Amino acid sequence: MNRNKDHDSYIKYISVIDLIIKNSDEKNPITINQIQDLIYDKGYDFKIDFRIVKKFVENYNNYYEDTIIKTYKEGRNNYFYYENPNLDLMEAKAIIDLVYSSHFFTLKTKENYKKRMQDLFSIHNQAYFQKRLNLHVVKNENEQVFYQELEVITKAIKEKKKIRFEYQKPSLTFNEKHKLTELAPIDTVFSNNEYYLLCQGAKDPNTCIQYRLDYVKNVEIVKDSDVKFDDYQLNSFEKKLNNMTYMYGEGKIEVIELEFTPNVYSNMIDKFGKNIHPKKINENLYCVQVRHIINSTFYSWIIGFGGRIQIADNDVHKKQFRDFLMENFINKNNAD
């Protein structure tokens, strides 16, 4: 009998607390009658009253040493609501927006993050996390493999060990062999909507090298290694990281055709996603049509490849690019 009584008390406690957390917030408090209705909706037939709920709430708050579930009386009704002590609603909203803006995470992973974040708040606030625009770019498809690699990397950073890995950038060459790289991992960071591994340079210990994390494969810890960074090196690494900048500007989305050499194929995927379909012009040149915002940032990105990526289609795009060069480089240099 005692076991059944303890079990029933446990079910009552869990049900009441869970229903308050999931169905209330500061703007949407819940009454005893509403809690009772929700209990019936769950298929339970036990009854509650104010005394029981008050006791459950006091025990819950005492455990957390804080008033997590608040109560007040207005008129004849006693109201209860849950106040999330860990995360503000708009903080959570901003985190989800950051996750969705990343080109690294798969759509499934983004949806999982959103669902977990929604579950931290009442049903009344879950609509705040809905996304209206689908800006997802298909790149990484096997997040489980990635997380396995990330787990090894973070373990090596924690244990201050070097790692050995293959850097498998996308290539138009089949069966390309990838050499093993052995370096000291510094940290993992998001930059330019991508996820990077930062490693200490092998030739210059005061510089760091960035690797796209979804291209880092077959990671293993070098057990007989020992990694230490002094203050000067950490300062140098931070300066390098601060230079991983991304420029924003005005413009509109247009279809544009680009020609590029095979050695920048991985950069094309970084920029436009995995679902591009390059056409081979000759052994040294490919072309592809893409949709992108055409602005000064885009032109600067093209310039950065020193001719290995060029605008190939209509005269309008070529003229706009020439005008950008004249205004920002040629005329400016002549004026200087």
UniProtKB/TrEMBL annotation:
This is WYL domain-containing protein. It holds the Pfam family WYL. Residues 150-221 form the WYL domain. It comes from the Bacteria. PROSITE patterns: WYL.
